[in-house]
Design brief:
Layout (H helix, E strand, L loop, with lengths): L2 H9 L12 H6 L10 E5 L6 H7 L3 E6 L2 H10 L5 E5 L2 E5 L3 E5 L7 H4 L4 E4 L8 H15 L3 E8 L14 H8 L3 E10 L12 E9 L1
Parallel strand pairs: 1-2, 1-6, 2-5, 6-7
Antiparallel strand pairs: 3-4, 4-5, 7-9, 8-9
């Protein structure tokens, strides 16, 4: 799975993964991170998620990273924001005072570009990545945010019933990726409504807190 896969998804508007409502587990539990007013939240692989609107409403500063420029342009349009667009190394930087989104490869996002990060909201990033990329992604997040607290949403389901993404991320996988850097807390879980993921398979959505030692 490469960049062309995701560019094709966005160009064809094949974005069944996009949710029109705020994520219920985020709304219920993100406050448990006990972040200060105006804290800086990083949202990797953000797409045009409505959850960014909620984070902004709650008074957070938000930085996102997204491969698709189409998604980012849609995001700012949906928020009625007009960004200033500049080149930042290999990335395009879309910026307003309250929201910055980098367009390009997540692995080109640097600590210098992000600045100090108070928390990461991984709403659909880890589950979008195939197994051979996840360890590199996890290490990169830790490096560019200096091990910031994470709120991570995953899905668990019988992977034999459907090809990802989203991929099934088990508790053991979370442990393998993160337990050397964080105390792991399974916060909540809920059944994916309706007929499950993509209307094809029953699944459970799981919320994790990853708290630095």
């Amino acid at each position: 799975m490469d960049a062309d896969y995701w560019h094709k998804k966005w160009s064809q508007n094949d974005i069944g993964f996009h949710q029109d409502d705020f994520n219920a587990l985020m709304v219920k539990h993100f406050g448990g991170l006990d972040l200060r007013d105006g804290a800086h939240v990083f949202v990797p692989l953000c797409g045009k998620t409505r959850d960014i609107a909620w984070l902004l409403q709650e008074g957070f500063r938000v930085t996102g990273a997204e491969l698709s420029q189409t998604a980012v342009e849609d995001l700012f349009a949906d928020l009625s924001l007009t960004p200033v667009v500049t080149q930042d190394g290999a990335l395009l930087r879309f910026a307003t005072p309250e929201l910055v989104v980098f367009v390009g490869d997540i692995f080109d996002v640097t600590q210098h570009a992000l600045g100090a990060v108070d928390a990461i909201y991984d709403r659909a990033a880890l589950v979008a990545l195939p197994a051979d990329v996840r360890a590199r992604y996890a290490k990169h997040l830790i490096a560019v945010t200096e091990g910031a607290t994470q709120f991570v949403l995953t899905f668990t389901y019988d992977q034999t019933t459907m090809n990802g993404p989203p991929f099934s991320i088990t508790a053991d996988m979370i442990v393998d990726l993160y337990d050397q850097h964080y105390a792991l807390k399974l916060v909540d879980e809920r059944a994916v409504p309706g007929k499950g993921l993509k209307g094809r398979t029953p699944a459970t959505e799981v919320a994790w807190e990853l708290l630095p030692f």
